[in-house]
Design goal:
The chain has three helices and four strands. The protein has about 90 residues and is α+β, with helices and mostly antiparallel strands. The protein has a four-stranded mixed beta sheet with strand order 2-1-3-4, with helices on both faces.
Length: about 90
């Protein structure tokens, strides 16, 4: 399952959540303002930047900051998911 690192105030986070739902891709949301270890992970995978939303699937991670549906779809394809994968392996 995709893990999505967010903040409550981030418009790109809201857009990414909606797009993942529309694509039928389940995700677990983790708010980095409430979880210091999540903030550390986000900064590690984004070269020291506090960039949200950050998506993690297996060993793949990417920031969806400056969200676009094409950016999200490219990442989904890169990590081997397909829209509608309710129970990806």
């Amino acid at each position: 399952m995709i893990t999505m690192y967010t903040t409550s105030w981030c418009p790109d986070c809201h857009a990414t959540k909606q797009a993942l739902a529309n694509l039928g891709l389940p995700f677990k949301e983790v708010n980095i303002e409430q979880d210091p270890s999540a903030l550390e992970l986000v900064m590690k995978v984004n070269n020291g930047k506090r960039s949200v939303p950050t998506l993690v699937y297996g060993e793949h991670a990417a920031s969806m900051s400056r969200f676009s549906i094409s950016k999200l779809k490219a990442w989904v394809e890169q990590v081997g998911l397909r829209p509608g994968d309710a129970n990806p392996t």
